[in-house]
Amino acid sequence: MVHTAPAPDWLSLTDRASHLRLRGGRSPQSLIAPSLVARRVTAARCAFEATMEYRPRTFQQLAGITAYYNTRNWYFLHVTADDEGRAVLRVAARDRGELTVDEAGGEPLGDTTRLRLGLDLDGSALRFRYDTGPGWRPLGPTLGATVLSDEHAEEMEGDRIRALGFTGAFVGLWAWDLTGGGLPADFDEATYRI
Known about the structure:
single chain; 194 residues; mainly beta; 1 helix
């Protein structure tokens, strides 16, 4: 996992009172300048929730919550813009480097800019949910949480190690801006529960 010191060019607790402002960073494949704030998962059954305000202008701008192992293994519940520039909530996954995006299962958000995002880990199952009011709704299928395990992340090519698995799973807040503009997402009320 890449560790980058908090710096005002990508993270701020003062730009907006009572919010963590996360400026969109580089591609999720990049080992340089990610905009990811995460904490280690410490139990096989847990939940993570955050309230986010975000208005992307293009499909290249994404922000939301993640269940993360490394740059090759993660899940991402995010807000982005569709081809017409309308905000939509989607699930993306990367499993041993293979990217999938559930574009058909996305949820249009209309004028909503503030929403709650949540995930639940229950052993080998991961489920995403969201709330734009008045309550939680599931989004996407049940996902295989074993993608976030040390054993799954270790990859071999013949008798040579291609990738090591040793970081453990994380949950957190993630923002991408592939335009390079650093569009910010504002988060508050992030909670991890066992």
